[in-house]
Amino acid sequence: MADTVQFDLVSPERLLASAQVTSVQIPGADGDMTAMAGHAPTITTLRPGVLSVEGPDGASEYVVTGGFAEISADSISVLAERAIAKGDMTREHHEAMVKEAEEALSRAKETFDNEPGPVDDAAKLLADMVAVGDHISV
To answer: 57: Cβ–Cβ under 8 A, 6 or more apart, which residues?
Structure first.
């Protein structure tokens, strides 16, 4: 199909998805974006959020905590630090992710005293993780 693109979602543990799709909404670090067939070549980093996929077989959503997306005219490859199908996401998963983000913020504050860059990044990570929970209602 000319209006579809190959989509692959990979985490360190496994391949979560591989299919022909019509669009992928990506939570990019610099803002959300939608990738479709014919997209200009792009590489972007991910922020914690929900990655939404639309295809001939329906829609699916995945919670991602970070990583990279490589987009070309005929493929979208997402390499996620952690990815879980939204339907499999539990309150316990979310609480563990928030706890990790809180610990990262604490370490950043200890390590980078009076250096706002890394501390701000860790605070943003924590805020994004809390927002994911609100978005998916866990």
So the answer is: 19
Q: How far is CA 133 from the centre of its chain?
A: 13
Over range 95-106, report the average pLDDT: 89
DSSP 79: E
What does the domain layout of the chain look like in residue ranges?
A: 5-87, 90-136
Query: 5-87: which CATH topology?
Result: ATP Synthase; domain 1 (2.60.15)
**Structure-derived torsion over alpha carbons of residues 73, 65, 29, 116, reported in degrees to the nearest 10:** -160
Residues contacting residue 29 through CB under 8 Å, at least 6 positions apart: 44, 45, 46, 47
Instruction: Report the predicted TM-score, pTM, of the whole model to 2 decimal places.
Output: 0.84
Q: What is the DSSP letter of 86?
A: G
Mean pLDDT over 113-131 rounds to 83
